[in-house]
Design brief:
The chain is α/β, with parallel strands linked by helices. About 45% of the residues lie in helices and about 20% in strands.
Length: about 375
Amino acid sequence: MRVSKVVLLALCAALLLSSAALAEDTVKIGLLVPLTGPAAADGASALASVQIALDQVNADGGVLGKQVELIYYDDRADTKDAVALAHKLIEQDKIVAFVAGSYSLPTRSVAPIFQEEEIPLVAAYAIHPDVTRAGDYCFRNGFLGFVEGKAAGYASHKLLGAKRVALLTSDNDFGTTLVTGFKMYKDKYAPEMEIVSEQTYPMSETDYKPYLSKIKEINPDVIFASGYYFQTGPMLRQARELGIESKIIGEEGADSPKLVEIAGEVAEGFHIVTNFDRDDPRAVVQFYLREYRARHNIEPDMVGASAYDAFMIIINAMRASGTTDSKAVRDAIASMKGYDGLTGVMSGFDEIGEVVKPVQVQIVKDGVFRHFGVVDDPELIKP
């Protein structure tokens, strides 16, 4: 039997409408994380934590009556991969919001893309200022590098009693902004604290003893050793092998159970400035800790907690605005106050999308990170 052209057109139209309806059955949120390469542990933590948040949201009815669909890809912490995948998330997957769960270089690269498409972006833990400078659709739940650097200066000066400090840092965006922030604190609040050594090392470095030997000769009170866990872990071990007894403080890049695994017993007493307090008694934190440990049999870290919060900030904005419309969601994020997150109660975002909340100071005790102090001076935590 021959089917008329009119009937065929009607069938095609019905199929298109059906496909569109199915596409709208979920709210699609994108995520890029480094699941392979040297940053794989951070990527795995970010993804695992967002999946905990996703399960909570969908078990609670989703958003606006729809389930949330998480679409994620491995960017390998690589700029080229991140850019290509950002276009895929936008053009092929049709996401309505994006969690930047990767490092500063790839996040800086994709931020202008999401800004141009007017898709809200919340960076979990990338610290470079260019992320939010991309425009008003870009936000950061983690700390701006300068803020974290100032907090490291405060912790070295006030909490660790440093009079003489050595700086040893990675020669990338991450290290540069942290050291700049540290010096900002010193110049304004602790001119008497002396920086007796300042060295940088390449990202590919594995032998830190030449740098550490120079520091040993100077014998500072504190070493601010900024870097990722796969850098700071070996650095700690090599420092103690050389007999260095100075206190050592790092930052959120070292906030990983992998650091303790790499450094072993010499990780004891190591301090970091970060945005996650494992001893925070709030219910949201304690639930996450139990759930993460039960699912993965490993300690959670700030990368995971920050990614969880970035995802939930988007969810809360959609619920508050009553829509997934990008401008309305962006406006809801910008005006959000008092978000009760894993990484602290957020005062809000400033005019360029930077979060305002206290900085946590942690110490490795009995093989895990525990509470040591907090930096909550408004002048220090202000972006």
